[in-house]
Specification:
Length: about 140
């Protein structure tokens, strides 16, 4: 059931962008990601950090072991794959690159992608990703 008047549900998503499991607040999610990043080049905990940021934004994801596998969890929570220019709150799920079999996950803060660190060189977190350019999907909550 939707939490506001005249709301209706389509595939578990309330019209107007309210997820039935909670209100999505991309500002809170991004603020959390920025405040809890560990600096430098991270510590290999991108999935945990981004999942916690999304939870701070009001949505609980089903956990997976690897960042590369979060697509289904995001879709189940009301995120949809999108193309084009990212907007604040978008989440990227990137497939593995050489030496990084778990893949990568980051949330867009409106300027930078943030995982367990603020990524200064775009969506791909490091040189091996930038060289290999593995496939990725960007998800947005509506």
């Amino acid at each position: 059931m939707c939490v506001y008047a005249r709301g209706f549900s389509i595939n578990g998503i309330c019209a107007g962008g309210t997820n039935m499991s909670g209100m999505w607040n991309q500002t809170k999610a991004v603020d959390y990601a920025q405040k809890h990043q560990v600096g430098g080049f991270g510590k290999g905990q991108c999935a945990e950090h981004v999942r916690q940021a999304i939870q701070a934004g009001g949505i609980t994801l089903n956990r997976t072991h690897y960042a590369k596998d979060y697509g289904n969890s995001l879709q189940s929570a009301g995120f949809q794959s999108v193309q084009g220019t990212p907007v604040k709150g978008d989440v990227a799920v990137i497939q593995p690159a050489p030496g990084h079999p778990d893949g990568h996950m980051a949330i867009f803060d409106g300027t930078h992608w943030v995982s367990d660190f603020i990524q200064q060189h775009g969506m791909y977190p490091g040189p091996s990703y930038r060289n290999a350019k593995p496939s990725y999907v960007i998800y947005r909550h509506y």
